[in-house]
Amino acid sequence: MNTENALRTIELIRCAGQAVSAYGTAQRSVREAHDEHSAALAQLNHWNHHIHTTGEGDRASPAHTALLAAVHEHQEAEQKLHKAEARLKRASVTLQAHRPTLNRYPAERTRRSSTTVLLDRMADYPVDLVRAADLIIIQTSAGKDSIVAMHRTVAAAKAADCLHKVRAMHCDLGTAEWPGVRELARRQAERYGIPFLVVTPGGGFLGMVENRGKWPDAQRRLCTSKLKRDPTGPVITAWVRELGLDRQAIVLNVMGVRGAESASRALKARLTLDTRTTSANRLVLTWNIIHELSEQEVWQDIASNGLEYHPIYDTGLPRLSCVYCVLAGPDWLILATRVCFALELPLPEAYAALERRIGHSFKRDYTLNAIIAAARMLDALDGPVTWRHGDALRQHLGPAAADQYLATLTP
Ligand code: SF4
Predict the structure, then answer these.
(1) Which atom of ligand 1 is nearest to the CA of 326?
(2) What per-residue confidence (pLDDT) applies to 96?
(3) How far is CA 28 from CA 34, 39, 127, in A?
(4) Residue 56: what pLDDT?
(5) In testing the pocket of ligand 1, which one of 208, 217, 224, 264 has its CB within 8 Å of the most ligand atoms?
């Protein structure tokens, strides 16, 4: 497959689609401006006729004032109509320029499905993909999926002799995260010698909740959009500018998203066009490079390649997310609280205090206070939770794999 040609086709289809929608918008603007102009003209004619028939034309009369207002409105409506017509003319020229592409991909559905097919085929050739890219950004949370995504991206980049294109970016959510996450993300990037950038969205997760007076939830996951997605745009802009290209840059935005994680993630494709971030100077593709891996395969990659993972996985917690993730179930939240007790972290009290302050329950069906009480009760019954380095690998791959992994870490 010729990746460069595929990318060019995707961009042509995208621009043709934009031209169609710009033309549609311009047509609507002309219709609206036309209606406004007709209404203004009717008013003008009305007051002209009124003055003519009643003779109430002296400067102090209400009819004269109304006539002046109608003249003014008519002039404004005329200007608006001229502008809208000029815009429609420009949109029509652009549309004509895209006619060859539109003849080939006339319907929006065809354009969308053709793009999807091309992207899916490109995902089968990661080395070619990396070769065609100008910039490869790995979004890392430092979690197990991120580190495997990073490892595989770097492997493809090395195979293409393109490691210089790869950079890593980490969004630091502040005290809401487990200790050591930022430092681990840095070490993981350093292992491959790739530039590493930390973005700290103002206020972090807890600041965002305090300001809103509400916790996010599965339906309104503002935390991911505000704290993780939104900071990415300016970074891409700055890094693309640094490239100094006189053509559109091809940017790969690598994520450690796996289909097996959830039903909504299963619906995601391996490679998608990021229409929100793409512009004339950059074509941004989201690359879910480990989309097809199972959890077992992720741990296998970690073990076989001696990748450093965060000790929180050894406690039995499945994800290195915020300590209290709004998507987590009660078992997960209780275990996270017990781990906080074991590590003497003040986070449970801080969250419970925030919950009281804003008067909004962390979860719809229960409060964090209830979670903390349950965690205390279990600690009292069973004693504090304990864990050993390598427990995550013992659980997923067995004791031999864990021993082998730990031996590779020993200098
Ligand atoms: S880990 Fe959970 S709470 Fe934290 S930002 Fe992601 S979805 Fe939101």
Answers:
(1) 3
(2) 97
(3) 10, 17, 45
(4) 84
(5) 224
Q: What is the pTM of this model?
A: 0.90
pLDDT grade for 411, boundaries at 50, 70 and 90: low
Closest residue (by CA) to atom 8 of ligand 1?
223
Tokens representing 201 are: 């969205």
Q: What is the pLDDT of residues 60-117, one digit of tens each?
A: 889 999 999 999 999 999 999 999 999 999 999 999 999 999 999 999 999 999 999 9
Measure 265 CA to ligand 1 centroid, in angstroms.
15
Whose C-alpha lies nearest to ligand 1, atom 2? 325
Q: Which domains does the chain have, with CATH numbers?
A: 3-114 (1.10.287.620), 125-295 (3.40.50.620), 302-409 (no CATH)
DSSP H or E run through 336: helix 330-343
